[in-house]
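Two records follow; treat each independently.
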Amino acid sequence: MLKADICVLTTPGLDVLHIKRSRGVKHYCHIVHSISPMTYRVFGIDYFDSVLVANEVQEDFVREVEKAHNVKRKYIAITGSTYLDELSCNLQSSTNLESSSTSVNPITLKDKSKKTILISPSWGKETLLSKYGLKLLEPLARTGYNIIVRPHPQSFITESEAQNIASLKETLAKYDNLIWDQDTPNIYAFSLCDMMISDFSSVIFDFVCLQGKPVLTIKNDMDLSGYDMADISRDSIWTFKALERIGGRCVESEFANIGQKCDEVMQNTKDLDSVRKLLWRYPHSAGDQSVLELLKIERELIESSLKPQSLLISRLRELDSMISLNRFTHSQSTLH
């Protein structure tokens, strides 16, 4: 039996560290699990045969990295984002339940009449909780806005980050307008917030697409060494330019006036819809698009494996045609 083996991974780094190509697999496909250009470690996608990306922005990024690393061009298809589609459905279901007076949101705000800001960082030593901590959170708490702090789940696994979070919680416990969100789907925090503050987490664009609300990002000189992004021009990286369009950037010296900055950001929504449309391609049909592309890849693999027998296959088709024609002619003559 003819078999066309395809291995599909959302994990990058094929043939770089632990994940090695198998001789029993003919084709390795990577499905990107974000909607903005990927912050993968160097060579993250170099050795895949194909990549299913969410949008044209990611496609352009993959091509730039290919040129920088001088590797073979991969098959790239734009398929949308399956996880964003799923989050959208879950968010809509949650919203429908809320509107029917059946409360399902596990996050409780003390004063729902106030604007709410979500702090949603990435994880690691370069993130806003690790680099700024109280310098940012305490001025925010003093604004009187509702503040929801949602650390990245990985931050609770890394010992130094977990200790930092515990210390922040203890110091900020006196502010009843600041709460911590952990172990709940992010859609619940999303649905309560009027804006987000983040660093370089891909959740920034999930929030923009799902909620259509602005994001303020902390501007710092992120060390890109060791990442694919380091091998292309920083000026060409779409993400850094887009952050200005979806709410703006701020630096540490502006933390003292963070309330005023947030007021400005919540008024800056003019580019959100255009960014959303650019990033969220094939909304609610990414699964179908992905399956279609995988079927195309399988067909190509089968066709390629049959090339040595192409003359025989062509002859079989000719014979089938001749036999069918003969049957039709015989049938017609019998009728007469």
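The next record belongs to a different protein.
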Amino acid sequence: MEIYKTIKIMNKRLVIINAKIIFPDTIKEKINVICENGKITKFEKQEDTVFQNSDEIIDAENEYLSPGFIDIHTHGGGGYDFMDGTVEAYLGVAETHVKYGTTSLLPTTLTSTIEELIHTFSVYKEASIHNSNGSQFIGLHLEGPYFSYNQRGAQDSKFLRNPDPKEYNKILEASDDIARWSIAPELDGALELGEVLRKKNILPSIAHTDAIYEDVVKAYDKGFTHITHLYSAMSSITRKNAFRYAGVVESAYLIDDMTVEIIADGIHLPKPLLQFVYKFKGTDKIALCTDSMRGAGMPDGKSILGSLKNGQKVIIEDGVAKLMDRSAFAGSVATTDRLVRTMINLADVPLIDAIKMMTVTPAKIMKMYEYKGSLEVGKDADLVIFDDNINIKYTIINGNIRYKK
């Protein structure tokens, strides 16, 4: 496999032929897909297409064509982490994930110093300018530092704290690229932060939390309409003074319009839980996410979660990253093709539904569905071609081939 140096075809048509085209509710064949100037411009019957000499033609050879995969939670891949704080790391992650069908991703931070966090904002800006060969950046996802100590998971506990307006306003003033922020809603000041984020059209998301159902209802009313990596680092049924309380997991199902994301690598969530979420939340409310660290696309062995300077040592084995004492997972090493493959082969989910949770639903959660997430005339020409086992053959972003097997 190799990264394709972007083939720019902005001044001519891209025509994809002989594909099994995946729409949100059906699969169609014998239709040509025509893209111009980075957009999907036409679907034509094969016999109706008049080819031009300048056309860039891709013969899908009866493989599947779907919208590009959208990963709304990833920390790294290819040996790089966004918290490395370098343009090289950002581009390295993007060029790794594009090989696996990811056309859009949200670079995700970890708990850190404010200085380290703000530094990565300027790096994101510069990397976005130079990112011509990898997955497209669609905004920043801040994960922490406002988390519950008891549900910290692999987040570094020395950086955990409650939301402080002076601090979070400083962070918000430092970047206009923040698209979502994962927070424990039960912390003092969290609901107020949620209101601030919603006014700025930033998605507040529930994560690393000990909240009970009553806390989640209050948070939902303040704009916390999404749950980060469902089942991971969050409360379920608890007892206090002999009384039982529903937690965040139960809240995800009780609040019908709450959206969730799941790390569908088959390890963070085994088959029964993947099937449970799919059955009771449905494809309209589930996004698949990798939550991948730098070990995605890398061989097993020792690695680092977070920045090379301040990160934690971890071990990659059994298809997942673990803390060195193997007491907890430390992020996944999944790629988006693996998520789709796992939902189909392990959870017995139909192909169309698995693709929807990797395209349509994340686009809607991030309020990007007007221009991404499905194959429609006028939308961005972000496309993936893959075989029956979700092995990626082409990744196309804005009508340009960024990866070819």
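Discussion point: Residues 1-7 have pLDDT under 50 and may be disordered. How would you locate this feature using only the token line?
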